[in-house]
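Limitations
The structure tokens in this dataset are predictions for the assembled complex, not deposited experimental models. Users should treat interface geometry with appropriate caution, especially where small molecules or nucleic acid strands are included. An illustrative entry is reproduced here so readers can see what is and is not provided.
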Amino acid sequence: MTKKQRKELQRIIIAAAVFFVFMIGENLGVFPFMENKLIRFIIFLVPYYIVGKDVVKGALHGIKERDIFDEEFLMTLATIGAFAVGEFPEAAAVMLFYSIGEWFQGYAVGKSRKSIKALMDIAPEYANLLMEDGSTKEVDPSEVNPGDIIMIKAGERIPVDGEILEGSSMVDTAAITGESVPRSARPGDSIISGCINGDGLLKVKVLKKYEDSTVAKILDLVENASSKKSKTEKFITRFARVYTPIVVIGAVILAFLPPLAIAGLKAAGILPEGAVDGGLLEWIRRACTFLVISCPCALVISVPLSFFGGIGAASRAGVLVKGSNYLESLGELSVLVSDKTGTLTRGEFKVSSVIPEEKREDILQLAAYAENFSDHPIARSIKAAFNKDIDEKLIKSVENISGQGIRALAKDYEILCGNDKLMRENGIDFVPCKEAGTVVYVASDGKFAGTIVISDTVKAEAKEAVSSLKKSGVKEVIMLTGDRKEVGEAVARELGLTRTYAELLPGDKVSIVEELEEKLLKNEKLAFVGDGINDAPVLARADIGIAMGSMGSDAAIEAADVVIMDDDLMRIPQVVRIARKTLSIAKQNIVFAIGVKILVLILGALGIANMWAAVFADTGVSFICVLNSLRALKE
Amino acid sequence: MKKKFDLEDLDCANCARKMEDAIRKIDGVKDINISFMAQKLSIEADDDRFDEIMKEVIKACKKVEPDCNILM
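Predicted assembly:
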């Protein structure tokens, strides 16, 4: 609660106490002096003044600025109208409940703002700059430049993106990625600003200025997310713009037209004298009901608040959504197109099978010796699968045959290790392999020994993520890959994807996404997920571009609309759920608020709904909508 | 020059919208965005007249909501 809110609350309580004492007292007949109209007026003016002072002041300000559709002005006009027609308790009550509604609204907004602020509490406060004489100096993060050396002590927040020169530690990345397991950081590793250093002392070379560092980018992004308005928000702003003038004009018409018409009809003799009556005062009373309902606040506040809450909930899960519009689109997601390597698969190669299996050890050993000095991913995966010490003294010679493989003299064998071309060129009688993946044939002393198949491994959570997306109503999950058809189809089968496009060139991805988007229905959206490194054009082209596992890659943060900070694919169904929930909350609010307002307007015009109902239709509805919006924050 | 300021006691979303509209009309303002939720005002304006422009911005905000302060 802010100071202003506390003061306001005190005023509301005092005013409410005064109001109810006299209200109940009057009804029980214990205050006979209230039969005097003037005294009664003054008594109800007291709570009115206590809570409504600022509103009336705001109204005068509105008049000065010639803004007659100002909320405070309308509220004041309605209550003065109520006083004028002798509805004293109603006038005071309208002001009282209006203030209560406003107060709760402010409180709720403040509360959700606080949870967002907590999320934004990732800004580093200082950096320890290493000076030439070896001492350190505390400076503002924005004062360090690339190339400077900084020291990061245990428990401190990493101020800028950099590279570790000395020291090692476990770094808590939760604030940035939502990932709770700390990452190890050693010399040579790059570290991301906004994370918290564990218990080691790190000497770090600054790579980026503060404003280009991850933490500054993220803060910027979250703060600006609400400036990209969703369709729903735009609708409501447009609606609010016309709603108030229409209702106010309606109020003016209601106040004067029916009494004039009735009087006219009576004068013309069409209506008998004294038939339908109510008089001018009755119609003014009804018009005041209109004015109370004319404020669009419930709508103007609650829809953006739901989106703000949704974006907050997503950020807490380690997913940055760059605008309300993207959150809305995620809620309408029907086709998810995914890149393969690095997104659905780890992008790490592993020996998936050795043929024949019973000679596994021998084949791996031959290949490992041949590939020992190579640093190619394939060589590394073979050595990892072999997982035994290699006696380098036994390797006599190694010859790289480009485009084919390796010929090595090791362990007294002449080993050939490579593709089918290598086998053919050397006249080896080999068994061609059709398995999905990269195929490495191994031969020793001119005889075929066997085959090693190396393939990328599918991420552990990928299958569950796909099925969970389908469950939440995403119709298609499609994979695009530059890989061979067999490889693509094997992955698609394993994960239960609906379609695969394989053997694509980089430019093909954009045209496929365009084609798929054309087939979408009006309220269906397409998202593309990629690792954000080579996918920038597709990320930009798709309705929603989602970058994965891009911690620290600012190219990805820039190009994508939604950034998943850790590598976890399960974040996608999670953020879709958050988006759907947010969207449904926003829609509930719109239907509820507009519905109640229209209902009370009709009943008010007919004289059935009084000012109490109008107060509910204004502040009660606002309050309920704000409370409903807060649900978007929880996931 | 692009700058960001915190806002204090910005109480209504509609006022934020009105302030934006008013500030956009000030000469020399290239871009303006007021986030009601973040209570922040980000402005891009001509470098050489920046202070002058900010004075007008403050005036424009006060006109919409007298209680609201821009923390400089």
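Some entries come with short summary sentences. For this one: The interface with chain A takes residues 9, 11-14, 17-18, 33, 35-40, 42, 63-64, 66 of chain B (CB under 8 Å).
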